[in-house]
Amino acid sequence: MSSDELFVAELARALKRVGLEALVVGSMAAALQGANVMTQDVDLLIRDTGLNRKKLERLCAELGGRAVRLSPMTETLGVVGLAVGVDIMFDRLPSGPRFEQLRSRAVDISLGELSVKAASLDDVIAAKEAADRPKDRAQLEALRHTLAIRKRLCEE
Q1: Residue 126 reports pLDDT greater than 90
Q2: Which residues of the chain form beta strands (DSSP E)?
Q3: Distance CA 135, CA 128 (A)
Q4: Cα–Cα distance between 84 and 148 in angstroms, integer?
Q5: How many CB atoms lie within 10 A of CB 72?
Q6: Does residue 139 fall inside a structural domain?
């Protein structure tokens, strides 16, 4: 397992301990599905409920970090004080898809004895196309290539 996968496995254990359902989205979701992309953080999408906000506080304590608002312009939180950054988004991605839509198409990624739910490659690609930032455009070719290979393997 890579160091990123080890961190995601640690994150998955902590999510399970606090009972917080989360989807891995963004570049880490793609990397966990075999895409040759780099990322500096793990993006999680959760439903915005009072109970989940409390579970998020417990998650931060479990991991030894604390959640801070990234900007007054967004509700996204960043968990600081960890070996790898974790960004928390609530209810929907900035590109529009809601938690429930993404979860219905999510894939289970095995990390040893644990698993995490990750946004499908189709959804990661759509989100990066919608964001249209230079760093997202730079990853699109690798993501599309990985998706094509995965589809061919499923056909065989």
Answers
A1: yes
A2: 23-25, 41-46, 66-69, 77-80, 85-90, 107-111, 114-118
A3: 9
A4: 29
A5: 5
A6: yes
Beta carbons within 10 angstroms of residue 120's beta carbon:
18
State which residues form the domain around 74.
3-146
135: DSSP letter: H
**Number of domain units in the chain:** 1
For 49, counting Cβ atoms within 10 Å of its Cβ (0-12 exposed, 13-18 middle, 19+ buried), the class is exposed
CA–CA separation, 52 vs 20, rounded Å? 7
Structural domain includes residue 154: no
Q: At 19, which amino acid appears?
A: G
Of 47, 31, 53, 7, whose CA–CA distance to 119 is shortest?
Answer: 31
Supply the CATH number for residue 41's domain: 3.30.460.40
Instruction: Report the C-alpha gap between 91 and 88 in whole angstroms.
Output: 10
From 8, 25, 22, 2, select the one nearest 93 (Cα to Cα).
25
Model pTM? 0.93
pLDDT in tens, 82-95: 989 999 999 999 88
The pLDDT of 127-146, averaged and rounded, is: 95
Secondary-structure breakdown of the chain: helix, strand, coil percentages, each rounded to the nearest 5: 50, 20, 30
* Count of other CB atoms within 10 angstroms of residue 36: 11
Residue 26 within a domain: yes
